[in-house]
Write a sequence for this structure.
């Protein structure tokens, strides 16, 4: 059995162009992205060589790029795009759990959003 690890991001805050309402089409809004990635260990890490582990800076860059490169109307579409990209770009990733929330969507709750889950 191959040992696994979990890489996670809590409340990655992005200014995104997302939504279908008129005010959402005119301006960006804050979204939060939470991600958990189950990965196979890549072997014994070398403390002096970042290439011996999955560099979470690259994961962060991928998430930001997908979430900010164009206007997306639906959170459902953005979640699927990010999930697919993480599985496609990082062979070590075996499972993605992704949550996207919009904190300004409603005044009577802290946030609303969706959670996505996919495995290879």
């Amino acid at each position: 059995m191959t040992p696994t690890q979990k890489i996670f991001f809590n409340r990655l805050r992005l200014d995104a162009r997302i939504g279908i309402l008129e005010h959402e089409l005119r301006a960006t809004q804050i979204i939060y992205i939470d991600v958990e990635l189950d990965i196979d260990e890549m072997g014994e890490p070398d403390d002096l060589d970042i290439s011996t582990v999955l560099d979470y800076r690259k994961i962060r860059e991928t998430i930001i790029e997908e979430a900010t490169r164009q206007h997306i109307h639906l959170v459902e579409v953005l979640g699927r795009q990010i999930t697919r990209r993480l599985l496609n770009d990082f062979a070590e990733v075996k499972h993605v759990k992704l949550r996207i929330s919009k904190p300004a969507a409603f005044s009577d709750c802290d946030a609303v959003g969706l959670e996505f889950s996919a495995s290879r």
User: Anything to note?
Assistant: Residues 98 and 116 are 5 Å apart (CA to CA).
